[in-house]
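From the pipeline queue, job 12 of 40. The input is one protein chain; the requested action is below.

Action: predict structure.
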Amino acid sequence: MRLVLVAAVALIVAVVLWRVSLRHASEAPANRGPQVPLAIVREGTVEQTIALVGRVGSPAGTQTKLAFSLSGSVQRVDVSLGEHVEAGAPLAHLDATPYALAAQQAQAEASAARAATAVASVDRTSVKLRVDEAALARQQRLYAAGVVALKDVQAAQGTVAADRAEIAGTHAQVTQAQAQSQAAAMHQQSTSYDVERTVLRAPSAGVVVGIFVQAGQVVDPTTAVVALSTVGGQGSATLDIPVAQIGRVHVGDVATLHYGGSVSQGRVTGIAPAVDPATGLALLTVSGVPAGTPPGTPVDATLVVGTLRGIVVPRSAVIEDPQTGDRLVFVAERHADGTLHFASRNVTIDAQDDRVARIASGLHPAERVAAQGAIDLLAPSSE
């Protein structure tokens, strides 16, 4: 009897172990899959930045020769020798007439482009499409009942197809009109900025120590107009900036400064759209340099000049296919058997910073993507 009991217990234990092993075997596939961190596609912002270099202190040298960044005829000089001026004070003016006329024309073109976009955006076909689709459905019912001929159904189908083609063409026209409107708006901003640049302003406080032109003289960006001896500069830095970038920067923009192994935050305090003939660059002054930092210390600066809002993912989630050059994101998909798979998807990126990338097309909010390690998923073995 004891042997029978022992045999029964052994059999029960064997059955239990067998069922447990089957359960583990069935659960294993659910746990398989690439082990990579995930991120949720979401609405967010991308910082627009400009990287610049410069030095601690006011503009270098005992004096700085300043020039207009445009060509034109000098209308007047606003300062005299020995005069003390503050940062941003006007030093001289060009005749702004040709630039003002160009700005007015650009404004008119931008208004016309906006009006064209509004006209193109008017939906003239959707209602007709719904009516024609209803007519097609009616013809199909009548044909099924033997009331109308097949040609009547085919004619209704042709009308619906024409409606849909017209809608597609309208969408293309709207896209083109929007692009033209955006280009016209950017041209308007450019011409308006040219008008602003007809005024030569002091990049920082100083004393006028040289005047090299007179009213009526024709000058260009290589012609020195005024020499300024700068004063002060404690707690500030001077940055060199290409003239083409000045329009993106505004007083008060946040600046991150790297110098001598240290980092500090500051803000733009002055913008001089004048060109230094020696460097071909304009100047910015920024605050935020701690007292005691030696003048002349090299500075690397990053300026935040704006933000863009849209659908974003971590920048590390986007990779480039080395064979095609396409930008890819791997989207996580949970299959019916519980396994996690990643499907590559082409995306279009229109902006990015050091944290995130803004997705123009290819993803939708709330989707999950591989946040890191996506390059490993590109291998065939990951499929």
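Job complete. Residues 25-31 have pLDDT under 50 and may be disordered.
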